[in-house]
Amino acid sequence: MPELLIELLSEEIPARMQARAAEDFSRLLKEALAPLALENTRTFHGPRRIALAAGIAAFVPARQVRERGPRIGAPEAAIGGFLRKHGAARGELIEEGGYWVLAREEKAVPAKARIAEAMPPLLRRFPWPKSMRWGASSFAWVRPLRRILCLFDGEAVLFALAENGDDGHGLVAGNLTEGHRFLAPGAFAVRSAKEWEEGLKERRVIASAAERQDFIADGIARLAGADQLRVESDPGLLEEVAGLVEWPVPLLGTIDAAFMDLPPELMRVTMRLNQRYFALAEVDGAFAQKFAFVANIEAADGGAAIIAGNERVLRARLADARHFYDLDRRTSLEARVPKLDHVTFHARLGSQGARVRRIVDLTRMIAPSLGAPPALAERAALLAKADLVSGMVGEFPELQGVMGSYYALNDGEPESVAAAIREHYTPKGPDDDAPTAPVSISVALAEKLDLLCGFFAIGEKPTGSADPYALRRAALGIVRIVRENGLRLALVPLIERWRTFIGLEHAAERAVRPDAEALETLPEQVLGFIVERLRVALRAEGLRHDVLAAVFAAGGDAHGDDDLTRLLARTSAIAAVLGTETGADLLTAYRRAANILRIEEKKDGKFDAPPDPTLLCEAEEKALAASLEKARHEADAMLKDEHFEKALTVLSPLRDPLDAFFARVTVNAKEPELRRNRLRLLQAMRTTIDRIADLSKIEA
Hints:
This protein is of the alpha+beta class and 700 residues long. It folds into five domains: 3-59 and 111-202, no CATH class; 63-105, Alpha-Beta Plaits, CATH 3.30.70; 209-318, no CATH class; 333-518, Orthogonal Bundle (Hypothetical protein af1432); 573-697, Isoleucyl-tRNA Synthetase, Domain 1, CATH 1.10.730.10. Helices cover 50% and strands 14% of the residues. It contains 26 helices and 20 strands. Strands 2-3-1-11-12 form a five-stranded antiparallel sheet, with helices on one face. It has a four-stranded antiparallel sheet with strand order 15-17-18-16, sandwiched between helices. A three-stranded antiparallel sheet has the order 5-7-6, covered by helices on one side. A hairpin with a 3-residue loop joins strand 19 (344-346) and strand 20.
């Protein structure tokens, strides 16, 4: 199969845009060249080039075209428009079924011609997030496009970007590319993707982004290992740096000892964000006095001058960081708290100061149930957001909470308070640890509940994939904290407390302006959202998420079980029963009764009234009623003691009397009162089971 190779060589492309551009190029090219199928497609991206190599058919195959046009008798203007659209003549139309139909055979088209035709419009509409114009042409690219290489089966595909008097910067495709800008300047010709990759490598360019990443990772690990150090994992930084260099040259530098007393997190952020340096660690995990970075050239002196220059730049960056750090520590966190009243959290949720007061109130309620000292928990909640008005967090928002913990220790606050300030944002993601200390847990839960309650109260709920306030992350954080610490915590009283607090104590300052309807159903909404995150987590773990939905929908509460640990225990127990023959029998019986009720309820509405014992005439319906009454009392006792598996098991014997009932009793009796009573009996059975789990939600 012939080979297609296209390379777009430009000035330096921002690293964050390269991978997406390569994906977009592959997608658009496949669309533009259809029906030519690309096979074994490989994409390349780097600082100066986006490229694609693939197998491709030699011809667009010949085909029969049949396109239905206007009706017979349609105006000539409509027929003419149809002909112009398809580049057809009137003689090619035939009458068929009351319509003009274009029927013709399209001849095979050489792939080379199709490529040359498709490329200019593709490049002119390429979807860069940001693009620029240069010179007199209207053609725009992310950075000035300098050269286009386009080969089909080893031969250049010639096309130009000129269009309607616009010279397209004079760009014409050919068979030339360029190596490293400084180490191997100048153009050279290629005839295949293999020759292209090898030629670039000879000229100090690694075309593959994955290969550059591996080269960087192996190189800095080798250098660090020689000094008995290890590289701290940072996949995002590795990918970014691979997008900044064409010929990676890993090097190590030394951090000035005068800065080693700065918080390690501060040094990591300074090095990463400002300079794209890799942090190193000692064998014991301590922050190392060396750092790794990547140059884009091989220097004659082995990189000595480059290392010295980077060390000098880092000293200046760390000196700036020390200035902010020292300045911040002159003001205590407690003294910063009033300033939060002047920092807006959200236009309808008030200031950060108002938010802190809500978090303190929730923490005050949560702490005793977790065994956290109330005074320490409240203190941590009060100071948790104070570092937001510090100079360091203003410079590096990534350090919020982290710097607060250092400032708290500097102020003489207890270690548990400092730890809670650091950890109250956690867990931020799947790789982040959840807090385990009672004080930290109290503040972390309060912070996340306030976030959820606040945005749900103003109607700002996530929709589809849009979640601008990270509410899903907050809910999943609550789920993880509760699960990983095995907490027994009722969530609805906390949500109701939040609602009461903003309704009464915040009325004077009008910190929150909620939607009345959203506020009315806030407990149901927020708890339902948290449980949905738990259900998604169970599904990801391969567990019975449908059983969780069934258990959550059980009982008479409008909001469902709000103790996540109990909810999970119920889910696990009931999933175990449903996996047995006994559970399967009960599920079958439930579905049979539920199906009849669903049909009859459409006709006559609900049958919620209790069955009348005096209307139970048949032996089988009397037996079912007696079995149901006995099972209900036993199940209630089991539920009270949280013996969930036993509660469902004691209901399983209902299968036999129900089968007998269906076999010998006519549910839809001719007598209306008998029919209603028998349907009420089935409803009583369904209600009894629903108190343990709504089995209608169990997947088939």
